[in-house]
Amino acid sequence: MRPVERLTALVTGATDGLGRSVATELARRGARVLVHGRDPERGAETVAQIREQTGNERVELHLADFASLAEVRDLAEAIAASAPELGLLINNAGIGGGLPEGRERQQSRDGHELRFAVNYLAGFTLTERLLPTLRANPPARIVFVSSLGQAPIDFDDPMLTRGYSGVQAYCQSKLAQVMEAIDISESAPASELTANALHPATYMPTKIVLSERGASMDSLELGTEATLRLAIEPELDGVSGRFFDRLSESRAASQAYDAEARARLRALSEELTAA
Fold it and tell me: Of the residues 164, 170, 203, 257, which is catalytic?
């Protein structure tokens, strides 16, 4: 990994919770940090506060609503044009299985089940479109902020039109992220690009957790440490296609290691995200 002060990093979902904490720590270490959010006012406030807290002026805002694949494509185009030296992508943006979004089935602007769209399809689209930029800046890294909450994808009904459960939707979207990390690891030399996924911590005190549960378990600092470890620690140079539970390597749900299932997921993803 190159020195952090020479690193350009994109952190999605960086105006709140874990994403904001990770973006702040990267800025504190001297990186150029591209902060993604969907709300202009909150985004501007976040960038101003990170600059003030860290003394790093190389913190910039990029807007996109991940419920719209068109906006995600525009985001990827803007990042590739303005940050051709991009060397780190942290796919953190997402919504939980219940509140504050709600437990009922909802659709994205593209007509896809909302949790699968925001948590997985948006990140898939962004990552695929930024792969050439990342691979041009070795050794680059991709980190997927996933979860221990995982469920196999029902390829007969991936949009969960029957018997909908927000938790099921969330869990299958999180397993899909791990599957993508493994796919990328098998298509790119680890000396050029690595991709890993992690469960950063359990029930951190974020908006999603507090809205749904009212109380936290693990600290935000633990989640930040675990995510930064995958993002910048030299000890993980060349480590790719792995799943981590906080600070330790672990195993994802079994479907993640099924090559046929990953191929089906990729085909489905390409079909659903085709412009």
Answer: 170
Active site residue 170: yes
pLDDT reported for residue 206: 64
Structural domain harbouring 247: 4-273
Query: In the numeric block, which tokens belong to residue 14?
Result: 């960086």
Residue 257: φ, ψ to 5°: -100, 10
Query: What percentage of the chain has pLDDT greater than the value 70?
Result: 93
- Strand pairing report for 32-37 and 59-63: parallel
Summarize pLDDT for 248-261 with one digit per residue, the tens.
999 999 999 999 99
Residue 156 has pLDDT above 80, yes or no: yes
- What pLDDT, in 10s, does the model give residues 86-97? 999 999 999 988
Domain total of the chain: 1
In CATH, what number is assigned to the domain containing residue 248?
Answer: 3.40.50.720
Can you give the pLDDT at residue 138? 97
